[in-house]
Amino acid sequence: MKINTYRTILEQMWQKDKKCFASDAEFPPHCLRCGKPLNKRLVVNALSRYADVHICEDCGMDEALRDACGQVLPMWEWYALSYKRDMPFHCDGPALTTDCSFNHIYTGSKKLFPFNHLEHPVSEMVYSRSDYDGHKWWTTWHHSDGERPTTELATEIDQFTEALFQLPEFKTLDTMRCFCRASAQPTSESTEFNLYAATEHFYIWLRMITRPRDYNLYCHFYLKETADGSK
Ligand SMILES: [Zn+2]
To answer: Ligand 1 centroid vs 90 CA: distance in angstroms?
Structure first.
């Protein structure tokens, strides 16, 4: 399984746009960040700090200024990813986005997990809790008392989790913190962020906590069949 982020989606777009520059660009593609035409000469454009793509000179300057004062432009506001662009983007595999397509599960029936007093949506089958100790990630799994995952479902959960930790964004707590600033949904707590994804059988909520010496990542897996059956 390959998991997409806003970064990987932009990099895929750029792989196509870049071909226009084979011998300078007669009709340069638009800057993925602001939508203005790029300079005809590839080297005159700037390399983004957040994805391996070229952006226009103005955007290069804007990124540097925003970076200096910690005011990163969220990647979902980039021209190429925002609603302003007519063409929807396509990608193979699940994408981590700030749009939650399964809000209905949070207002439906609830249940308790063993040894846990918090209520979870009834469709939640399992969640993982990870923390980064300065060297590596440690993960524990928490199963609902209800339906146990079949081999097929367990494989899907394992593949998602493995692919997640293979992303450079989840290499360390620091990389996850940088990723959250530009690519995750902020919350009222400045060190907590959300992202959402879906696989064949699951809706997935990633809750990221960027504080050191705390639990840093929760992955909640909700069975679509149960979630949508109770819609
Ligand atoms: Zn630009």
So the answer is: 22
Range of the domain at 26: 6-77
Kindly report the average pLDDT of the chain as a whole number.
Answer: 92
In a domain, 86, yes or no: no
Domain total in the chain: 2
Same structural domain, 19 and 57: yes
Ligand 1 centroid distance, CA of 171 (Å): 29
Q: How far is the CA of 184 from the centre of ligand 1 (A)?
A: 21
Q: How far is the CA of 79 from the centre of ligand 1 (A)?
A: 9
Distance of CA 34 from the midpoint of ligand 1 (Å): 4
Q: Which residues of 88-98 are buried (b: 16+ CB within 10 A; e: fewer)?
A: eeeeeebbbbb
CA trace torsion 43, 70, 80, 200 (10° rounding): 120
- Asked whether residue 177 falls in the same domain as residue 225, the answer is yes
For the entire predicted model, the pTM comes to 0.91
- Output the pLDDT for position 84: 52
Ligand 1 midpoint to CA 59 (Å) = 4
> What confidence tens digit (pLDDT) does each residue in 125-149 have?
999 999 999 999 999 999 987 677 8
